[in-house]
Amino acid sequence: MRRVLSSLATPRTAIVLGTLVFAVNVAAIVAMVLAHYSITELVRLSALMPTVAIGTLVAVRRPRNPMGWLMLGAGFSFATQALGTGYAILDYHLHHGALPLGRVAIAFQPGWAMGMVFIAGLLWLFPDGDLPSGRWRRAGGLLFASGIVWALVMYAPSVAVAVSPGLRVDADGTPSIIENPPVSQPLWLLWIIIQNVGFLALILSWLVWLAVQIPKYRRSRGDRRLQLKWLYAGAGVFVITFAVGLLEVTGPVVSGVLAFGVAALPISLGIGILKFRLYEIDRVISRTVSYALVTGLIVGVYIGVVLLTTDVFRFSSAVGVAASTLVAAVLFNPLRRWAQRLVDKRFNRARYDAEATVAAFADAMRSSADLPGVQRELVTTVNQAFEPTHLSVWVNVS
């Protein structure tokens, strides 16, 4: 069995599968647009595109690593759920059952369960795709297989409802009997129990993974530490933006930020697995934190000046907006430099130490006119700031 799977895990298979999953995602977005879904839902779904792209890239570059295939599986599962729900709305509510394959769309709606299992596998197997060593290896494999079985069981009611006569679909595209299952019937009661227990177990596995990461990060060194930094940074941005998306805040700027935030997790996973620009994580973290801090401060100043000018000094709203915009523009660069220096001191220490070293060198050179001394100080400063493997100083005296 393992030999058969190895023969299928090829770059060509990855390209074919990636193209198929991309096409399913495009079809899902089209169906959701025609079904009049909200902008937030469309942004959340469109953020699956980077997952598909990164998954295809990883599967092509590292076909024996299951991480790329898991990303493609997650992209396919969530896309089939969105496609099935959107198409069901189009068929049963906008076209009164006149479209073909409406029952097939109903059968694909529980794709969320398989997608969540794939995401759990991505977190636990990052970055090498290997199960835990020792006695936990068999237990980890058994738990992941149990998750796959649970996700497949979630399809059973939808498939049964899709082939049964008298199908009724609610306005959100979900069959009425699944939306309000008859708990008096033993099979439906059993399905509800399995669904809740499996979902709670999946959430528990994520919490256990989070608890395991603290000692794991402390023990890590070198590239592995940087890989984990990328994972944590992407996961943090993903969780924050996903939580903001649940508030149903709309607008082009908010939608763009949400799309970037949801896509941060697969992008960071791809960087960590492929080790592409791995050493830039400290710079990325410092820039992200500093601009988030500056944005919060500027928004606070803007709102404060508007309230001060309109409610306290009783100016018109146009004057208040103009004044607050001017104050925000004047304060942006000073706040950005202050925040960047503050954040670099904590998250990008190398850059902070290098700038401090260069500043000390500049102060020392203001009172020095000795050329050999300047050369020695320059070599010492460059070695301290950048630690190069080789350094030469050319002096042109004319």
Walk me through this protein's architecture.
This protein is an all-alpha fold. It contains 16 helices and no strands. The model has no long low-confidence stretch (mean pLDDT 79). Helix 4 (48-61) runs parallel beside helix 12 (252-274).
Can you give keywords for this protein?
mainly alpha; 16 helices; 398 residues; 2 domains
Topology diagram in text:
Elements: H1 2-8, H2 11-34, H3 39-46, H4 48-61, H5 66-94, H6 102-107, H7 111-125, H8 135-163, H9 176-179, H10 186-219, H11 222-246, H12 252-274, H13 281-312, H14 317-347, H15 349-365, H16 371-386
Helix pairs in contact: 2-3, 2-4, 2-5, 3-12, 4-5, 4-12, 5-7, 7-8, 7-10, 8-10, 11-12, 13-14, 14-15, 15-16
Task: Briefly say what this structure is.
With 398 residues, the chain is mostly helical. The protein has helices at 2-8, 11-34, 39-46, 48-61, 66-94, 102-107, 111-125, 135-163, 176-179, 186-219, 222-246, 252-274, 281-312, 317-347, 349-365, 371-386.
Percentage of residues in strands: under 5%
Distance between the termini: 75 Å
Q: Provide the helix percentage.
A: over 70%
CA radius of gyration:
27 Å
Shape: globular
Stretches where pLDDT is under 50 for at least 5 consecutive residues are none
**In total, how many beta strands?**
0
Specify the biggest β-sheet. Answer: none
Mean pLDDT rating: 79
SS class? mainly alpha
